[in-house]
Transcriptional regulator, LysR family
Amino acid sequence: MARLDVNRSGEMEVFARVFELGGFSAAARALRMTPSAISKLVGRLETRLGARLVNRSTRTLQFTAEGRLFYERSIRLLADMDEVERSVAEAEIPKGKIRVSANIPVGRQLLLPIVPAFLEAYPKLSLEISLTDQVIDLLEQRTDVALRSGPLKSSQLIARKLGAARMIIVGSPGYFARYGIPKTPDELTQHNRLGFSYARAAKGWPLMDKGVLKTIPPSGNIQVSDGDALRALAISGVGLVRLASFIVRDDIVAKRLVPILEKFNPGDIDELHAVYLGQGGLLPIRIRVFLEFLARHIKIGEGRPSREA
């Protein structure tokens, strides 16, 4: 077995340069070494091989049959090594398609805005994005990554937390102008509270009143399947909604929506995760770079709204 401290590929490269340039001095100039260092390296190589590679004279070098054979085999091996390194390097360039699923608000407000920058950073990757509020089976739907908000169910999936946002109750200025602004949790029961058309882990809107946690169920005249639809209904003045703050933050800044009852807010949050199949702990590089990009660029935050009705 070869000794680990012998740089055989390095010796091959030096000897090949000596052979191609016809001398120690020329090879030394090309390799930025001294002629004596080249001579010593060839001498060590000959000793290890037990064969004379070069016949030296004061003016010329003559390569033996063994030296010519060693050169020919060396350049083939060096070419093979270059090919191996090149193929591995090319395999590490992220390329291919990534299939992504996200619920509608997350997709529209967090994922789609960063897609152009991702594709610019990784031009050999493409994305297939499905926006749905249904919880899909990643394996069955051939999906690589799903962005899911809220509590995660126990599964074989691996989850990476991307952030968390406070839950807040909001309504439009037009709605408050017609129906007034609830100042306490009890007054909230007199208002149109819009909710989701599917079962959620949270059965109502939790509010902390005088140290007691109250849960007010959404019992309005409209139920919809996704948070983006609730947001649109709230902006149009149909009723009040309770959503993750990232969904309505731009609307609050633009004064299309106004947060209410913040002093009663218990501070519960809606977490966002990227979930994916572990594949035995090994991930393709295309999935790894996508997850890292999401972690760096998706910004949710848990800050308290600056304006309240």
In short: The mean pLDDT is 86.
